[in-house]
Design a protein that fits this description.
The complex is a heterodimer of chains A (about 280) and B (about 290). Chain A is an all-alpha fold and about 280 residues long. Chain A has 13 helices and two strands. Chain B has twelve helices and two strands. The chains are: A mainly alpha (about 280), B mainly alpha (about 290).
């Protein structure tokens, strides 16, 4: 690694890592939005990944190569339990069922001594780094880009525009929706495991309502016309508070207002990717 | 012991029912999941706090004043956030997202302004000591909760069933476009529904603030989770279902806290939510057709 890059990373390590992790979270939101659904459980899925991976590392001393994939199991199970019944119903059910998940899990983390109670888990070794974080981010981006160009991508686009019409054309809407939600749970779980293994500490209060809404604001700021858009949205919203330190209190106000403005006035996000394919 | 806990459960549950009532009415008539609803709850509690602390109003005056104030706030928020989406017939999820962003901004702004500390209503507001009925002990705050909830529920049901406005509202719930063509001013009715729901939530906030005597900006958000469980169990848009489910949830929570662990209250509520979604997605009492995609 060249010296200048080493120096840069040493100074801005936290920000550089946060950009990668938040990029993954934005993608986990993107995949659900891109089938026309809304899950507000991203932060809860992230917390499940963070807690399960931290426990595997700290209590069982498993290597990171096993811990990282294992961190997706708990989020997957929760996504299955909530997604299977709700995704057959109208979109509000998934949103309503997931919005409280983060708070429910927080109450559980605080009350279970095995997972550290109110103190959380500390002393997690720093196992994640540039390669694992950005490797996964690039893989995910590449995957979404390829899927977006395939028949699956066209089906997803069709059901986002009009699910009834898509179903009539033979798209198995419920299966695609569940697939998208499970993918999103995997990505959020991985992001949680990575973040737990860069910060050495995780606490029960980090995965509640506020981060859930913040993750949505990443995707809505960027738009969902392309997988790159939500990642850039996440980067903007991660860097802005770093540059405007004085407004730390108002960061959440800002994220909330972004969502309002994006839905009301910029339904395609601020980035110039077209939502619909041009007619061939 | 059990009788006392059942009583507490019913009293707690009636505030849940009150909270869920406005929410489910809003969904039923306006077809929006309006998440700023949790903020109305907080706002009601804070208005009552201001009125009783700074202006020394008695609670029987502060409660309706808070309800009316929050009702007005709700009308303004509805106009700012949702009127436009209704006009362009935006999908349901747009209104959900817009109100979600707004409610985060409102909570965060309120926390930045007033701080995250828990505030309390002045001691004299709560009235003297508890009353004893045989083995039961009931505080005056709890009695006020029960009476206010019963009064508001009765008034709402009477409005919906017995008046021309209620008929118009039910027509609008059935089909807003057809209702508009029949000469119903749907814009004004939407404002009225927002006002009623805001007032119900504001009053609910005051009552919960009285019952637990802990008021802070995010209190409405903790309530939202309960509200959602109640609404799903009762069936989205079903007023009667929300009432029964609210009381049920209150009893279940009190019993969980009493016999298992108070830390599991939320988890039990959520497990019930998921179980109902798996088995009876249109609600336990669902006659209404589930809106399938």
């Amino acid at each position: 690694m060249p010296v200048w890059l080493d120096d840069f990373l040493w100074t801005y390590q936290n920000v550089v890592y946060a950009l990668g992790v938040n990029g993954l979270l934005a993608l986990s939101m993107y995949v659900v939005l891109s089938v026309g659904q809304l899950s507000l459980g991203q932060a809860a899925f992230m917390g499940l990944g963070a807690y399960s991976s931290a426990l595997l590392t700290v209590k069982l001393h498993l290597p990171f190569a096993i811990v990282l994939p294992a961190s997706t199991i708990a989020p997957l199970l929760f996504a299955l339990a909530i997604g299977t019944p709700t995704l057959r119903l109208s979109g509000v059910y998934l949103a309503i069922a997931t919005i409280g998940l983060g708070e429910v899990l927080r109450a559980l983390y605080i009350n279970i001594d095995f997972v550290g109670g109110a103190l959380g888990i500390s002393g997690i070794p720093e196992r994640a780094g540039l390669v694992s974080i950005y490797g996964l981010l690039i893989l995910a981006l590449l995957g979404f880009w390829l899927v977006g160009r395939s028949a699956i991508g066209r089906a997803m686009e069709a059901m986002r525009e009009d699910d009834v019409a898509a179903a009539t054309m033979g798209v198995n809407v419920a299966r695609y929706r569940l697939g998208a939600l499970l993918t999103s749970a995997v990505l959020a779980g991985l992001a949680g495991a990575l973040s737990a293994h860069i910060s050495s500490f995780i606490g029960p209060n980090e995965y509640g309502f506020e981060p859930a809404v913040t993750i949505l604001s990443y995707a809505l700021l960027g738009g969902i016309g392309s997988p790159f858009a939500p990642v850039i949205g996440a980067w903007i919203l991660t860097l802005l508070p770093e540059m405007l330190r004085g407004f730390a209190d108002l960061r959440l106000v800002f994220n909330g207002v972004i969502i309002v403005l994006a839905v009301l006035y910029l339904p395609n996000g601020i980035l110039p990717w077209a939502m619909r394919r041009r007619a061939a | 012991m059990l009788a006392q806990q059942l009583t507490n459960g019913v009293l707690l549950g009636s505030t849940y029912a009150l909270f869920a009532l406005g929410f489910t009415l809003m969904f039923g008539v306006l077809r929006v999941v309006n998440l700023t609803y949790g903020f109305y709850f907080t706002a009601g509690a804070f208005v009552a706090l201001l009125l009783t602390r700074s202006y020394s109003l008695p609670i029987w005056a502060a409660l309706p004043a808070a309800a009316v104030t929050v009702g007005a706030i709700a009308v303004v928020l509805d106009w700012l956030l949702l009127a436009r989406l209704r006009r362009i017939n935006a999908p349901e999820l747009s209104s959900l997202m817009v109100t979600l962003g707004a409610v985060l901004a409102l909570y965060a702004a309120m926390t930045a302004w007033l701080g995250p500390d828990i505030r309390r209503l002045p001691a004299e507001v709560l009235g003297g000591e508890a009353m004893i009925f045989g083995p039961l002990r009931i505080t005056q705050a709890q009695i006020l909760v029960l009476i206010a909830t019963a009064a508001m529920v009765t008034a709402l049901l009477a409005l919906m069933r017995l008046t021309p406005i209620g008929l118009a509202l039910r027509a609008m719930a059935e089909n807003p476009d057809a209702a508009g063509l029949m000469g119903i001013d749907t814009g004004r009715l939407a404002a009225l529904v927002s006002f009623i729901c805001g007032a119900l939530a504001g009053a609910g906030g005051v009552l919960i603030g009285l019952n637990f005597n802990a008021i802070q900006p995010y209190m409405g958000e903790a309530m939202m989770l309960r509200g959602f469980v109640v609404i799903i169990i009762g069936g989205l848009g079903d007023i009667r279902g929300a009432l029964i489910a609210g009381v049920l949830l209150g009893i279940i929570e009190v019993l969980t806290a009493g016999y298992i662990s108070s830390g599991l209250k939320e988890a039990v509520a959520f497990a019930i939510l998921v179980a109902v979604l798996w088995t009876r997605p249109s609600g336990l009492f669902g006659r209404t057709q589930t809106r399938r995609a």
